[in-house]
Amino acid sequence: MKEVDARGLECPKPVLLTKETIEKSNPDNLTVLVSNETAVGNVTRFAENSGYSVTTTKQDDYFILHLRKMGFHEQSKPAMQSTSMDTVNENIVFFITSNEFGQGQQELGELLMKSFINTINEANMLPTTMIFVNSGIFLTTEGSPVISALQEIEKKGVQIINCGTCLDFYKRKENLQVGIISNMYTITETLMKATKVIRF
Question: What's the pLDDT band for 75 if we cut at 50, 70, 90?
């Protein structure tokens, strides 16, 4: 029986590893090991949406999820299909205006943004363009925890645009690590031509 050991891994890694194993091997049975109840819930939802039944047992300081592929008549809903944006014929722009995700505690916002960037990279849920303005440019400059992920995203064909005025204002132009430096005209034009703009 195949096994995914995701103990000690941060969200969304347990789900991504489970997804990768299912897509590559299409196993009838799969065991997934995780460290906390949040991961149990996330993996369970993904597995059930992918056509598996799930039973969970507690073992010492971790959880064991037993996934079993359901027959056609057992499935209450169709298996979830990949949501990779790179397969959709749309001009999607992520407009990132801050180095934090949402409003509230700064530490939490920065943690959520890091998780978001890593997730879209690892799950290939990619837009056409990512625009970084205001404090969002701290994600593309030296010291950012997501430089490697953004560089990989750029290599996959996503255009990364940085606001030149913002880089100058924060005195970060010399520290830019990924993407191109652009101006408000290009940023405005890119936003106007997009079929969908998602702001963060």
Answer: low
Pairwise CA distance, residues 21 & 27, whole Å: 8
Claim to verify: residue 43 and residue 92 sit in the same structural domain: no
Does any domain span residue 80? Answer: no
Tokens, residue 58:
């507690």
Domain assignment of residue 167, given as a range: 85-199
Residue 58 sits in the same domain as residue 13: yes
pLDDT digits (tens, 9 = 90+) for 87-134: 445 899 999 999 999 999 999 999 999 999 999 998 888 999 999 999
Q: What is the dihedral of CA 90, 46, 28, 73, to 10 degrees?
A: -90
